Amino acid sequence: MPQKRGKPSYAKKDAVWGYLFVLPAMILIAVWIIYPMIFAFRLSFMNFKYLTPEKARYVGFANYIRAFSDDTFKKALTNTFKYSLIVVPVQTIISLLLALVCNSRIKGKTFFKVAYYIPSITSALAVGTMFKFLFNQQGIINRFLSNFGFHSVSWFEDPSYALPLCMIMAIWSSVGGGMILFLAGLQDIPSSVIEAAQVDGANGFQRFLKIILPLLRPTIFFAVVTGIIGTLQVFDQAYIVSRGSGGPLDSTMTVVLYIYNKGFRTTNANMGYPSALAFLLFAIIFTLTLIQKKFFDKGAESY
């Protein structure tokens, strides 16, 4: 009996329609992401100025070599790593704790979910304006501390406090998003596993350490990786606090803010140099992501 040959044609039609539906998004990605990346990578090996493009010339790795002798870039890189090393662990731990609270059987947990998540959808400009109002020299924080005998402090004008305040802003405005992520991970854990451990006599801390935490490993990996990528690309908090200058004394200068200043706040700038800095940052982020993946994969094998 001859076999029907209609199914392959339907599969081909489905594939064609699938590609047609995906095509507009692929065109947008190619035009607005892939092509600019290729163009920027090409610029990183050139001395190129938009006002005089006819004078562009190939300089090889000169822009990359220049970065290693740029003191401001080194300062920006140091600030960015400090920012990332503090913000990512703190926001991850707080997000996990908030998720545990919201996943428990407490009353009014819907209110807490909304209250914790609101800062995550608040614009960086609004958050920065609020913090500048709170930590102004005549602001609420200084007035409160004066009741205990502390002197008024210019928080955002002091190099010792400006970057830590940026960190506090980032943590406060990001833990809500992390909480939703961990809450989804917690609710994906089968309740039967937790109940079985409880029957076996495991207390709350043991259940968290031996069952919940290992099962949350993929969620933690995702939260840490995206957190590090986001913090290494920090721009808005530093820009708002310093009005784009990275001050005081470059204490809030980050890599992305420095790239922005060199490319768009410098008259007739050599766009090759900020392009090289951007790809150096990409190389750092990519390397750290691979290291984290290897670390988490090795940890998963032990369970």
Question: What would you say about this model in short?
Answer:
The protein contains 13 helices and two strands, in the order H-E-E-H-H-H-H-H-H-H-H-H-H-H-H.
List keywords for this structure.
303 residues; mainly alpha; MetI-like fold; 2 domains; two-stranded antiparallel ribbon; 13 helices; 2 strands; transmembrane; transmembrane helix; MetI-like
Q: What overall geometry do the principal axes of the alpha carbons give?
A: globular
Q: Identify the CATH homologous superfamily of the largest domain.
A: MetI-like
Tally the helices.
Answer: 13
Strand order of the largest sheet: 1-2
Structural class assignment: mainly alpha
- Total domains: 2
Q: What ranges have pLDDT less than 50 throughout 5 or more consecutive residues? A: none
CATH class category label of the largest domain: Mainly Alpha
Kindly identify the CATH topology of the largest domain. MetI-like fold
Q: Proportion of β residues?
A: under 5%
What does this structure look like?
This is Carbohydrate ABC transporter membrane protein 1, CUT1 family. Belongs to the binding-protein-dependent transport system permease family. The protein is mostly helical. It has two domains: 6-43, no CATH class; 62-301, Orthogonal Bundle (MetI-like fold), CATH 1.10.3720. 72% of the residues lie in helices and 1% in strands. It has 13 helices and two strands. It has helices at residues 6-43, 62-67, 71-103, 109-117, 124-134, 140-146, 159-187, 191-199, 204-215, 217-232, 236-242, 255-264, 272-301; strands at residues 46-47, 57-58. The protein has a two-stranded antiparallel ribbon. Helix 5 crosses helix 11 (236-242). The longest helix has 38 residues, at 6-43. The mean pLDDT is 87.
